[in-house]
Write a structure and sequence with these properties.
The protein is α/β, with parallel strands linked by helices. It is built from 23 helices and 9 strands. The chain has helices at 2-8, 14-29, 44-62, 69-78, 87-90, 97-102, 109-126, 129-142, 151-167, 173-179, 186-203, 212-236, 247-280, 283-292, 300-315, 320-336, 347-376, 378-388, 392-396, 398-404, 407-426, 489-497, 507-515; strands spanning 341-342, 345-346, 431-435, 438-445, 456-460, 475-480, 500-504, 520-524, 531-533. The chain has a 7-stranded mixed sheet. β1 (341-342) and β2 form a beta hairpin. α8 runs antiparallel to α9 and α17 packs antiparallel against α21.
Length: 534
């Protein structure tokens, strides 16, 4: 892996090397690729040294002015897969505590042998992610009955488990942030303290109807404090590494980088929880009703959370100038609010149209991201998966999983909810185009599965989101009679298969579509009514 990356980063194959490495390391870390020993005896310090070399090269390329967006995305996927190279792991004989525990005096002989052969010897011969799994299993065994083993032995084994988590860089976000606290200045420390306080309050918040309003406010405040903290860390990572930088400084930079990536991952959870809470209090319908009564204060939370999501994308290197522009628009419309009149125009309509333009811009940003990934991963995932014997389902769903696990997915869902509310406020047609285009064919209703009939259009009453299209020369277009996030599994697959895809929620329009069942129709997403009888 080191030879592949370091040897190709200066060549025209740089992006390809990064993409293949990201795919391979993810499958290694998730156990999709089984690891076997080759008879060698490299101690964990060898892994740490290789990790440091790779990290240094990745950071160098990350900070270069000509680095592409695709390269940035690939590098960010590699970083969490690299082991730590702190000084204790690059020592000539690292992780020695396990040797002492394997010879502990007051534990049974068979337990000593098991620790020695399944953890100690394996760790010192050829360390890997599976060693942490074995250690966690052993820890669960020795703590199952509290008084079976001595407190001192259990405590030492817990320390070993913590050391392996540290080596694998798998500590939780709070632990990771606490580990870089000593390197912060006063302003950075203030941002860190605020975020950790908000996170602790959120973790301890009881789930109840009475706590729902507090939960929404606290989720937004936590997300905003996360934004501030991540901006501080990203700012600290802007400068590239000098050639003479000491090893300790490189190790600290790795911690900073993983904290920055960890904050991005945590923002995904915050936005997901915010969306769930928003649906509980009425979702798009409630926002629409409030807008109708000229009370748009309830929109501040959803717009604030969208601002956070957009800012997170920019901090991750995805079109930062565009993200900044969208964020500025959101803040401006939020501050301006809704007026009774704007000139001679109805203030509510102008407010909604202005907001819709920014939301459409936000959606285009998410769609451009979802279009970039299929150009990067699928072919290489299939090639590598076939060579390494990866299960077919893991290969087939790799791209969708990458999208759905990222902040981009939550931003897309927020856009869907807000656009639905805006369209309702404007009294618009109720259509939402996921994949544009035009086609003609016979309209049928697909029940349970996609119909496999050539030159047809189909409509569905509902979709749980996990269907796989049978497109190609079969289905030409789809009308889904419910809302669907643009970056949902079904939406992404339809885009990949070039299947025209719209959703409709208007009851009158749905009734008109159903009357066309079995007839030859034209499907054109630029029309006011995308499905018309020929």
């Amino acid at each position: 892996m080191c030879e592949l990356l370091v040897g190709n980063l200066e060549s025209g194959d740089r992006l390809e090397a990064l993409i293949f490495s990201a795919i391979y390391l993810k499958w290694i870390n998730t156990g999709q690729i089984p690891c076997f020993e080759d008879g060698g005896h490299p101690r964990p310090n060898r892994h740490a040294e290789i990790s440091r070399l790779i990290f240094r090269e990745l950071e160098r390329i990350y900070c270069m002015k000509d680095t592409s967006l695709q390269e940035v995305l690939s590098i960010r996927k590699i970083h969490p897969c690299l082991p730590s190279f702190k000084v204790e792991f690059t020592a000539s004989v690292p992780l020695t505590r396990i040797r002492d525990v394997a010879h502990w005096g007051d534990i049974p002989h068979d337990l000593k042998l098991q620790i020695k052969h399944t953890i100690q010897n394996k760790l010192h011969r050829n360390a890997g992610p599976e060693d942490l799994v074995a250690t966690e299993a052993m820890l669960a065994r020795i703590t199952r009955n509290p008084e079976e083993y001595s407190e001192a032995f259990v405590e030492q084994f817990k320390i070993i488990h913590h050391e392996l988590k540290d080596f694998s860089m798998l500590g939780n976000l709070t632990e990771q942030l606490e580990s870089i606290k000593e390197s912060f200045d006063d302003r950075s420390l203030s941002a860190l303290t605020l975020f950790l306080e908000c996170k602790e309050r959120l973790d301890n918040l009881e789930e109840s109807k009475d706590a729902l309003d507090k939960s929404i406010d606290l989720l937004l405040k936590t997300a905003q404090s996360l934004n501030t903290l991540r901006e501080v860390i990203v700012k600290g990572l802007e400068s590239s590494l000098r050639n003479d930088v000491p090893d300790a400084a490189i190790a600290m930079r790795q911690k900073w980088r993983l904290c920055e990536i960890g904050l991005e991952d945590y923002s995904f959870l915050l936005l997901s929880r915010f969306l769930n809470a928003l649906e509980v209090v009425g979702g798009a319908q409630q926002l629409k009703e409030n807008a109708e009564s000229k009370n748009v204060s309830s929109w501040n939370g959803p717009l604030g959370s969208l601002f956070v999501g957009i800012r997170q994308l920019g901090l991750s290197g995805w079109k930062p100038e565009e993200c900044t522009a969208i964020g500025n628009e959101l803040l401006a419309w939020k501050e301006k609010g809704l007026s009774e009149k704007e000139g001679s125009e109805d203030g509510k309509a102008v407010w909604a149209l202005r907001l819709k333009a920014t939301l459409d811009r936000s959606r285009r940003l998410t769609e451009e991201y979802s279009e970039a990934l299929p150009q990067m991963f699928p072919q290489k995932v299939e090639m590598l998966g076939k060579a390494l014997g990866i299960p077919e389902n893991s290969v087939r769903t790799y791209n969708e999983a990458e999208i759905r696990a990222g902040v981009i997915f939550q931003v897309s869902k927020l856009c869907t909810l807000l656009l639905k509310a805006v369209r309702s406020t404007l009294g618009s047609q109720g259509w939402d185009v996921l994949v544009p285009g035009a086609a003609h064919g016979t309209l049928i209703q697909a029940i349970d599965r996609w119909a496999v009939v050539k030159q047809i259009l189909c409509y569905l009453k509902g979709a749980p989101g996990d269907e796989v299209t049978a497109a190609g020369n079969n289905i030409k277009g789809v009308v889904l009679l419910q809302e669907l996030p643009h970056l949902s599994h079904l939406g992404v697959r339809a885009g990949q298969e070039k299947v025209i895809f719209v959703t409709c929620e208007d009851d009158d329009k749905i009734a008109d579509i159903q009357k066309l069942n079995g007839k030859c129709v034209r499907h054109n997403t630029t029309s006011n009514f995308p499905v018309k009888d020929l």
